[in-house]
Amino acid sequence: MTTIVVIHTGPVTVDPLKAQFAAQLADARVVNIVDDSLLADVRSAGHLTPEVTRRLYSYMANAEALGADIILNACSSVGEATDLLRGMIRTPIVKVDEAMADEACALGPRVGVVATVSTTLEPTVRLIRRKAVERGVEIEVTECIAQGAFEALLAGDAAKHDDILKRAIIELAGQVDVIVLAQVSMARLVPSLGSLPVPVLSSPQSGVASVKRALAAL
C-alpha cells in the first residue's frame, strides 16, 4: 500500500487535506504528523528558524522510517525549510502550495496573495516570484493581510475570522487577475465567495494532485 506522510504545523490543515486524499488517493495510507509549536515558534520569531528546521527534519526522518513513499509539507510558513531538507531526506517531498504558485503565475500577471499572518504571506510571495522566474514571466504581486482575522480565530470567533477574510478577498478581486489563498485552512471559504471576476486558488486540491503526480513518477 502507498504510504503518504503529511507534516502539519497545526490541526486546521488536517481535515481539508484528508478530504482531498479521500477524493484523489482513496487507496493510500495517510499518516498525519501534527506539531502546532512549529507555527507558533515561527510566528514568535517572525521568520523560519534553524530550530524549527531541525524539528521538521526529525519529523521527515521519522516519515522515512515509517516507509513513506511521499512526504507532503502542509504549511507555507515552513515551506522554505522543505527546499533545504529535500537535499537531506531520500523520500520525495511535495510542498502543498507549489503547484498553486505555478498556476498563479500562468494566470497573472497581476497576482493577489491573501493571508492572515505575515509569516505565511512572505514565503508564499517569494515562492510565487520564484515560479515566475522559472517560467520566464513578469508578474506584479499585491500582498494582503486580512487584519484581525487571525486574532479572531485565536479568540474562538470563527465567524468573524471568515467575514474579515471574505471581505479582504472580495476587495482584492477588483485589483488583480488571480487570487492566491496562502493558507490551506482558507480553502473552505471558496464556495461561499459567490461569483468573483477572477479565479481564487487554494492549495489542498492542487497540493494533493501534486502528490498524485509525484507518486506516478516514482
From TrEMBL:
Tell me which domain of life the UniProt entry assigns to the organism this sequence originates from. Bacteria
Pfam families linked to this entry = Asp_Glu_race (PF01177)
Q: Name one GO molecular function term.
A: amino-acid racemase activity
The chain's coiled-coil residues are none
In the record, the note on similarity to other proteins reads:
Belongs to the HyuE racemase family.
Quote the protein name from its UniProt record: Asp/Glu/hydantoin racemase
Lineage of the native species?
Answer: Bacteria, Pseudomonadati, Pseudomonadota, Betaproteobacteria, Burkholderiales
